[in-house]
Amino acid sequence: MQRQAELRRRYIEAQFRLGVAYQGQGNHRQALACYQSVTSYDPYHDQAHAAILRCYVLLEQRSQAIRYYRDLRAYLREELGVAPDPHITSYVKTLMPQTDVGP
To answer: Residue 30 falls within a domain, yes or no?
Structure first.
């Protein structure tokens, strides 16, 4: 069981790093796929959620970024009774100031 958890952690870490590498090359679509893979294995990975939002914005998919944030906010509220990480909310406010990103 411990080995399985370690392999899972390594996979998540590798996918995140691959996403960072793709993003560094300007390949935001591939980066997005990597970050989405991360959140499918760890739905509470704040850095991956923030990266997904950045990718949507860089891919000029503003409406998808807004939808994603709102879905994330609802999911976290339902599952844990919490709001998204304040850094994510702040980032969304910076990128999309006219969007309601309330608690």
So the answer is: yes
Tell me if 21 is assigned to some domain: yes
Match 């939808």 to its residue by tokens.
67
Each residue's pLDDT, cut to its tens digit, for the chain (103 residues) gives 899 999 999 999 999 999 999 999 999 999 999 999 999 999 999 999 999 999 999 999 988 998 999 999 999 999 999 999 999 998 888 776 555 555 5
Task: Domain of residue 20: give its range.
Answer: 2-95
Q: Report the distance separating Cα 67 and Cα 70, nearest Å.
A: 5
Q: How many domains does the chain have?
A: 1
Angle at 39 between CA 20 and CA 26, to 5 degrees: 25
